[in-house]
Amino acid sequence: MTDPLQTWTMAQDQAPESADAAPLSELAARAAELRAQGQAVPAELADRIREEAAAALEAEMDNLPV
């Protein structure tokens, strides 16, 4: 089994833009894997999850009927 932290770090090093394009569910899954293994979630990953969640919520709110 691959180490999620190592996978995240390698993705950031090799292609930062592709790591940024990961969907919220994939980012959350990576964070959950790290937590399950007792590892800390990198600040960059936590920040990206917050940004994606805020953007998703904003998009949902924009589509609500008035």
Helix content percent band: over 70%
Please state the structural category.
Answer: mainly alpha
N-to-C order of helices and strands: HHHH
Shape: elongated
CA gyration radius, whole angstroms: 14 Å
Beta-strand content: under 5%
Number of helices: 4
Q: What is the count of structural domains? A: 1
Largest sheet: none
Span between termini = 48 Å
Short description:
This protein has 66 residues and is mostly helical. It is built from 4 helices and no strands. It has one domain (4-62).
Overview of the structural elements:
The protein is an all-alpha fold. The chain has one domain (4-62). Helices cover 74% and strands 0% of the residues. The protein has four helices and no strands. α3 runs antiparallel to α4 (43-62).
